[in-house]
Automatic annotation (TrEMBL):
Zinc is among the record's keywords: no
Domain Metalloprotease TldD/E C-terminal per the UniProt entry, residue ranges: 242-469
GO MF annotations, alphabetized: metallopeptidase activity
InterPro entries registered for this protein in UniProt: Metalloprtase-TldD/E_C, Peptidase_U62_metallo, TldD/PmbA_N, TldD/PmbA_sf
Keywords per UniProt: Hydrolase, Protease
A GO BP entry: proteolysis
Protein name (record): Predicted Zn-dependent proteases, TLDD ortholog
Coiled-coil parts of chain: none
């Protein structure tokens, strides 16, 4: 079923065009991004039920103008036909005062005027079940069944939590040359379980995500048994002996490696700030010849797939690494202008009240030609790594660290049943990527959670890839 566009944004469209018309008399470039995103988060556990507004809820506008030197922005959430002239005057006054103040205190970076092609386009996503066609009662009942299913598998499971979160995103972008709108729904779900034996307590989780509505609940249900099985096995887990191992990384783990290694590391605003080592390695080898890596709103169909970014740049499919060679990075409009490159459609805002940064969208390693069973057969002694919790990477020095819930021991090509937990994967990014010797022939993406930049800016992204065989340091 087609997702419906925000009626609020449709109603404001002509007023926005009028605002742009007024501001264009004083500024060579004017654009307005309008957003209307709303959703709910549902949590069901033994202690009760919680329903809350989504972390991503927002409704408002941001205008960007060329101020003669660079770009100024003004955000607002009230737009009425009767106060449009007063709003335009306020924007002009604020911009002029800002430039006057900055000119006295700082050396301002100069930019050219954004040159846009004339585009009129739209995108409406599709889901099996529209959010507005599904009651909260239905979602809670489904989550209760998932929670009870986990609790009833074993008396070693002492608690279970089922979480479902869906957001309906609508955006418009209007300038003198562009008239764009888009509306889509993404959702994510988690099954979290807690196991206990004696004085030992362990936890495990599984996640589901995509451009889905409440139908995602069906996928969540299929993951309960394996989530519980691993949680029980973790009660007998041992600590991994620190050292270097041959490993097979699950798609979730290869995804977090891609995200941290050459996701954050190639966000090109970091190139401008001289805070990324990757700028020195464009067109140079940084990985095994088996490695090709992509990012883009059009690279895959997942939670960060859109028609246009928050600067009105059409989404693209960017090849970051091609056969082991670093080709390019991910840019917003202003960082691309500074570097003399073409924007990649990766300009994203945490909300209409925050500035744009170069951010990832759908980031993943491309599939190879190997069969997973052949990859296992090639391991004399090592681990299958799965269930990532978090990751960090230093774009300036290329150190990487990924926190994983567990590793399953492999000996002579077979799983032994032994499990180690927790697992910390560390290393130097090019060493890790150059050690990749096998890549499976299918990929999977995951888009649960959020990606942070600094301590406050968040973006919805997905990452993933195939199973990969590599040599890594574990601790």
């Amino acid at each position: 079923m087609k997702v419906k566009m925000s009626e609020f944004l449709i109603e404001k469209k002509q007023i926005i065009k009028r605002l742009i018309q007024i501001l264009t008399k004083d500024f060579k470039y004017v654009s307005v991004l309008g957003t209307d995103s709303h959703g709910k988060r549902y949590i069901v556990q033994k202690t009760g039920v919680e329903i809350s507004d989504s972390f991503w809820n927002e409704r408002g506008f941001v205008v960007r103008v060329y101020n003669g030197t660079g770009y100024s922005e003004y955000s607002f959430n009230e737009l009425d036909e009767n106060n449009i002239d007063a709003l335009a005057q306020n924007i002009k006054n604020r911009v002029n005062a800002q430039i006057e103040t900055l000119d006295k205190k700082f050396k301002i970076t100069k930019y050219n005027v954004i040159n846009e092609n004339k585009i009129e386009d739209s995108f409406l996503g599709e889901v099996k079940i529209l959010p507005e066609g599904c009651s909260s009662q239905y979602i809670i009942e489904r989550l209760n069944k998932i929670k009870d299913k986990a609790l009833n598998i074993s008396n070693l499971i002492i608690d279970a939590k089922a979480i479902f979160h869906q957001v309906h995103v609508s955006k418009i972008f209007i300038s003198n040359n562009k008239d764009l709108y888009q509306s889509y729904v993404w959702s994510e779900g988690y099954v979290n379980v807690l196991s206990r034996k004696g004085n030992i307590t362990r936890s495990n989780y599984s996640s589901s995500s995509g451009l889905n509505g409440p139908e995602l609940l069906d996928e969540m249900d299929t993951k309960v048994e394996n989530t519980v099985d691993i949680a029980i096995k973790l009660l007998d887990a041992e600590a991994v002996k620190p050292g270097e191992y041959d490993v097979i990384c699950s798609p979730e783990v290869s995804g977090i490696i891609a995200h941290e290694a050459f996701g954050h590391g190639v966000e090109m605003d970091m190139f401008v700030k001289n805070r990324a080592k990757a700028v020195e390695y464009i067109d140079k080898p940084v990985a095994s010849e088996l490695v090709t890596m992509r990012d883009g709103a059009r690279s895959a169909k997942h939670v960060s797939s859109y028609l246009f970014d928050d600067e009105g740049v059409m989404g693209t499919d960017t090849v970051i690494i091609q056969d082991g060679i670093l080709k390019t990075g991910l840019s917003d409009t202003l960082s691309a202008m500074r570097l003399g490159t073409k924007p990649t459609g990766n300009g994203k805002r945490f909300s209409f009240e925050r500035k744009t940064y170069a951010r990832m969208t759908n980031t993943f390693f491309v599939e190879g030609k190997d069969k997973v069973e052949d990859m296992f057969a090639s391991i004399k002694k090592g681990y299958l790594l799965d269930c990532p919790y978090s990751g960090m990477e230093d774009p300036k020095n290329w150190g990487i660290q990924c926190m994983l819930n567990y590793g399953l021991e492999i000996k002579d090509g077979k799983l032994t049943g032994k499990i180690v937990s927790p697992v910390v994967l560390t290393g130097y990014v090019p060493d890790l990527l150059k050690s990749i010797s096998m890549v499976s022939d299918k990929i999977e993406l995951a888009g649960s959670g959020a990606c942070g930049k600094g301590y406050k800016e968040f973006a919805k992204v997905s990452d993933g890839g195939p199973y990969i065989k590599a040599k890594v340091r574990l601790g």
